Amino acid sequence: MNFNLITVLGPTATGKTKLAVQLAEYFNGEIISADSRQVYHRMNIGTGKDLSEYIFKGKQIHYHLIDVIDPTEEFNLYKFQQLFYKAFEEISEKKKIPFLVGGTGMYLGSILQDYSLNKADFEKTQQEYFSFSDEELRVILKKLNPVLHNTTDLNIRERILKAIAVSKAQMDNRADLSEVKTVNIKSLNIGVKLPREEIKKRITARLKRRLDEEGMIDEVQSLLDSGVSYDKMIFFGLEYKFIAQYLSGELNKNDMFQKLNSAIHSFAKRQMTWFRKMEREGVMINWIEGPDFNKAKELIENNL
User: Which residue among 146, 222, 233, 302 has its CA within the 20 to 30 Å range from the CA of 155?
Assistant: First the structure.
């Protein structure tokens, strides 16, 4: 084979997870999620886990990096890398194909562009920039990484510092992997895209369904009731941020919907911007129109 990993990526609401599950069933694989919020327990509707999608033709497709940590705990790129390589080795040892699936650009880039990060990077950055103001840190971060995967990187000091550490590690492309074990990744990358207007329609319809039928507001209230702080909900962004603001009385329901809908549209656009940036930096992505199983299957078979 010309690869030891298959990556299925794309912006939100394009059907990439369902496609990846079909491919994993056909090619005897398992899924490794590259989603920065699906790692958390009890954050199901807002993150779009849709665990029923992992059952195909009556068969449970095994997945990794979903429901691995409590929302009150911290998860970051360093932990993602640790868990990714552990899952990658477990799947490979079973003679199965790992499928990396998701839309969190920084997580995908950390694997496909082979840059490393360890705890010392965070600590060193915190010490180096301790005396800088938040505004000064934002200027530094924007210079290092003009295309940010998440606007909350600019709103919370700890995240600004972490994003600076990540950006430096990416730019340095360091080979010091003393704390994160890696292997030589050769990934076949399949990108799922749809016309922008179609994505916007899907996002809006999905959001209405989650709010009106699936209980997403109740999910956020339950998280708050269980001890997840309001600030942490703001940190999680998108659904959790705007619904928390609605529940606190800062937004009425209509404003919450409009602002959240617009924010998810912008997020999908930023995802595509990140993927185009990865392409400019040398990552080859084979784009297909929509979650086309036959086209994706053909791409894989042509590289076996």
Answer: 222
DSSP H or E stretch at residue 136 = helix 134-144
**C-alpha closest to that of 176 among 230, 222, 141, 124:** 124
Report the predicted TM-score, pTM, of the whole model to 2 decimal places: 0.82
Split into its structural domains, the chain has a count of: 2
CA gap 59, 23 in Å, rounded: 13
Is residue 214 a part of any domain in this protein? Answer: yes
Across 24-33, average pLDDT: 98
CATH of the domain at 228: 1.10.287
Q: Would 257 be classed as within a structural domain? A: yes
Task: Please choose, from the candidates 50, 31, 55, 106, the residue with its C-alpha nearest in 3D space to the C-alpha of residue 76.
Answer: 106
Task: Please indicate, yes or no, whether residues 261 and 210 belong to a single structural domain of this protein.
Answer: yes
Contacts 24+ apart (CB under 8 A), 245-248: 246/217, 247/217, 247/220, 247/221
128 token code pair? 């180096």
Residue 140's pLDDT band (cuts 50, 70, 90): confident
C-beta of residue 44 within 8 angstroms of C-beta of residue 80: no
Domain range enclosing 147: 116-175
Is position 141 within any domain? Answer: yes
